[in-house]
Amino acid sequence: MDFSLSEEQRSAIDGWHRHLERKVRPITSAHLDNPFPKDVAHELLRLTIPYGVGSGWIPEADGGAGLDFLTSGLLFEELSRTSPDLGGVAWVSEGAALKIQSAGLPALRDRYLPGLVSGDLIGCSATSEPGAGSNVREIKTRARRDGRNFRITGEKLWTSNATIADFALVVALTDERQYTMFLIDRQEHGYEAREISKLGLNGWSMGQLIFDEVLVPEENIIGGLGGGLRETMKGFERSRCFVSTLALGIAQSALDASIAYSLQRQQFGKAIAGHQLIQGLLAEMVTELEAARLLVYRALWLLSSGTRCELEAAIAKSFATEAAQRISSKAIQIHGASGLTREFPVERYFRNARLLTIPDGTTQINQLIIGRKLTGIDAFG
Question: Taking CA 94 as the corner, what is the angle to CA 93 and CA 98, rounded to the nearest 5 degrees?
């Protein structure tokens, strides 16, 4: 495995970095504490999609950029140094687009893909519920057949892009232990979305979706009747890899801020960068970051090659998100009292990193997946 970047990748990332600084950062910096309004989210996606972020996983034949997952991951990592919130918005919508492209009926693909790969539409996926988080088999949302339609009733929680999405891919019970995924259009079919106030990544919408006898045609099924869990599980490896790229971007930002501050801050007659304990903290931070980066790149490389990487994705996700939390905590320590204030960005990096240890399998759930792969024993029962 050679993770050295090609000239094409280097050129793409350099141009992407300049574009982010010039066009994207001025917009995202105004929305650090509240979710991007819907019109702003569309504006931002229209800025990222030409570079393959928001459309990269969709084949060129269907209007996307047709990027491999490793190259896409590099772009998401770079974006997350500027705005992990926007990285989350783009990654979730892109994942919804890929599900439609790979498992939707032709009419659905024709209707929704063009808008998704242009930034005119935003998608989300809704599986978790108040009583069903890590165990998706405990979902209660039901879809009752009504002729050629289904009536869907239930509640979804912790749905990313909830209040800005134009549609949701919703997993519901169509029979006892039969789970089916439906595309529910917010305007056409109607559902309620409520924002959740949270610890970090506050520019990225996360909320609750409520469905009350929502009538959806059977043509809106994704992956066939009873294919809901299969389609959900297929996305987990990819999701864990891309949550990890957000963690890499946050951790790199924390390290960069710490180096800059340590060179500027004077104590005991010299810059604190010259103090041995500060250098020790910086050394620990960069070592963890580089270890996390290699684990994430390995999982992305396997994903790009079409190889199953459940173990590698779980290792990458559990290590990278926890490492980002440790790195950002050390960044606060290096900044001292200043690190506790909102005058410096490191407290936000810490809050953002802390949030990432939860979605797409908590650290502990990913450890159970790793344990199952190592021993063949399923701790989930």
Answer: 120
